[in-house]
Design a protein that fits this description.
By secondary structure, the protein is α/β, with parallel strands linked by helices. 57% of the residues lie in helices and 11% in strands. The protein has a 5-stranded parallel sheet, with helices on both faces.
């Protein structure tokens, strides 16, 4: 069976990743290619426990290297339990964050550098590379404002505290943002950069264009009803 397609979404919190993953998943489903959708940290029972520890604002004093180790522990489990089996079965996998996030947040934001992140990826993540990475990069100011509003709302409504990173200074996020741009410049064949303060529909159009091109390059054809898709304006 042909191997599936591994697509990751990257960007700061508040960049619109969750919305765009949901819209892309619906777009793929209409074409007879329902994807497996997962996230990091999280996506497995072990990963969800790591997520709760790593993102909770009560996890004070967490050393940068320990933080990075948690991210890779989550990733190794997700690859073994969820991602690799799905790809081996020929499925499309959409993942909210992958190693680019670790390079941006820990390598850039925490100033641990890219070399350590990429070496751990080689050792602990089997050097698994996405077929396509969609990097959503609105302005730093817009991303931070949306992320802080959203996390406050989630905490008030559901009691979930995932605000530890949002407590960082703007200088931290500036380093993360710049590291993302560095990754995009280094790997233009893999990373599709969607930059600027665009509308949800504008971002979706660019995401669909990038995914359509990659599906064609991989020879993955729609199994859906083309007429039904056309009538739905898709």
């Amino acid at each position: 069976m042909p191997r599936g397609l591994f697509i990751t979404f990257e960007g700061l919190d508040g960049s619109g990743k969750t919305t765009q993953i949901q819209r892309l998943a619906s777009w793929l489903k209409m074409r007879g290619q329902p994807p497996l959708v997962t996230r990091q940290p999280g996506g497995t029972a072990t990963g969800d426990r790591i997520r709760a520890l790593a993102l909770d604002s009560r996890s004070t004093g967490l050393a940068p290297m320990a933080e990075m180790a948690l991210m890779f522990a989550d990733r190794a489990q997700a690859i073994a339990e969820v991602i690799e089996p799905a790809l081996s079965a020929g499925n499309i996998v959409l993942c909210d964050r992958f190693t680019d996030s670790t390079e941006a947040y820990q390598g850039g934001g925490r100033e641990l550098g890219s070399e350590a992140v990429l070496e751990l990826h080689r050792l602990l993540a089997s050097n698994l590379q996405p077929d396509l990475t969609l990097l959503l990069l609105p302005s730093l100011e817009a991303s931070l404002a949306r992320a802080r509003r959203r996390n406050q709302r989630v905490q008030e409504q559901a009691g979930a505290d995932e605000n530890r990173f949002e407590q960082e200074k703007d200088a931290f996020y500036s380093r993360v943002w710049q590291k993302y741009r560095e990754i995009a410049a280094r790997e233009p064949a893999r990373v599709a950069l969607v930059e600027g303060d665009l509308s949800i529909d504008q971002v979706h159009e660019r995401v669909v264009a990038a995914v359509s091109a990659r599906l064609g390059a991989k020879g993955i054809e729609s199994r859906g009803n083309a007429a039904a898709c056309a009538s739905a304006g898709l």
